[in-house]
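SEQUENCE-TO-STRUCTURE ENTRY
===========================
What this section holds: a protein sequence and its matching fold, both as plain text.
Question of interest: how does this chain fold, as expressed in C-alpha cells?
***
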Amino acid sequence: MIRVYTQASQGDQWLRRYRGRSPVLACVLGFTATGLIPGISAAGATPDDRRYTAIADAEFLYNGPTIAPQYPLPPLTAGASPVLISRAVVEALSIPLYLFNAGLPHPPAVPAINLGGVPADCLSTGAALPLTIVKHLFEQGLQWGQTLATVVGDRYVIISECVVGGTTTALGVLTGLGIAATGKVNSSHPTCNHAQKWEIVQAGLRQAGLEGQTAFDPLKLVAAVGDPMQIVAAGMAIAASRSCGVLLAGGTQMLATYALIAAVARHHHLAWQPQEIVVGTTRWVAEDPTGDTVGLAQAVGSVALIATSLSFAQSRYPQLQSYEAGYVKEGVGAGGCAIAAHLTTGWDQRKLLQVIEAVVERYSQNH
C-alpha cells in the first residue's frame, strides 16, 4: 500500500525504520493572496471561499464532523476536502495533533499555536512577506521541530500543510532555487494550470530582482515569492531530523520545502539528517498525468518520494470518486496520514477506504 517512487533504498530504509511506530501530526496553516487569483486553485469554489479553506480544514481536522461548525468546509468545484482522509486516520489511530498558525487572515476556531506570522501578499509582487517575519518564522520552526522531536522520541513526526495557492508559491521557490520545475508541479485542478502559474512566478521573481540569480540567502527568496508555511515546515524538519524521522506530507509543496531545507541548511551551515526525511503524498499526485512529480523529485535531488496507493475507484461516494478523475488530489497531510495508517497498523485498501467513508457518512448526515 506504500510505493517508493524515487531514491528506492533510502525510502525503503525509512519505511522499515518506522514501521509499527506511531507518529504525531503537525499541520502548518498559512495563507497567500496568490490563492485569491481567479482560477488559480480549486480548493474553494470562489476566491472568497478560499480565504476560509485553511481555517475550515483546521476545524474539521481537530473536531471531525460536527452539526454546526464555525467555519464549514468550503464548497469545491468537484470532490471533497482531503481533510476527510486526514481526520479519518487521526481519529482512528488517536494521532496527537498540533495545529500551527503560520499566518492566516482569521484565527482558527480550534486550539492552534500562533507563531506570530502574517498572511503573504501575492507572489507576483515580488514582496510576499517581510524578511523579518520570514526569519522569525524560521526560528519558530526550528524551536518547534526540536520540541516535537522530544515528544516523538524514536518515532516520527508528520509535517503537513494547508495553504491555498501553495503549489504556485512552491513553483516560485523551486524556480528561485534554480530547479527546473516548470510544467512539473501539481494543482487541485484536474488539468494543471501551468501557464497561469508560470506567468505569476516570472512576474514575482522579476519584481524581486531575482530572475536568473541563485547566489542569495534562501530566506530572501521566501520573502519575495513564498508563503509562511514553507519556512516554518523547513525549520521544523531541519531540527526534528537531527533526532527522529520526518514525513513531509504533501506533493509539490513539500518537494519545494525539501529543496528549501537543503538550501537554507547549506547557506546557514545548519546540521540536519537528510536520510531521516521523506516526502509522502497520494498516488493521485505521484502519478498525476498533468504534472511530473517524480521528475520534480529527481530535479530537487536525493529525496525519497513515497505515496499511498489508496484508491477511491470503488468508493460509494461520488465526491471521493472525483479524486480518480484528478480533482483535489492532496492536502492537509492526506497522503502522509494514509501512509501512517499503512505503516502503523498495516491497513489495506479496503480497511482504509472503510474508515474514510465512515467519516464522509457522518459529514454527509450533518451537512
Remarks:
- The longest strand covers residues 24-30.
- The mean pLDDT is 97.
- The radius of gyration is 18 Å.
- The chain is about 45% helix and 10% strand.
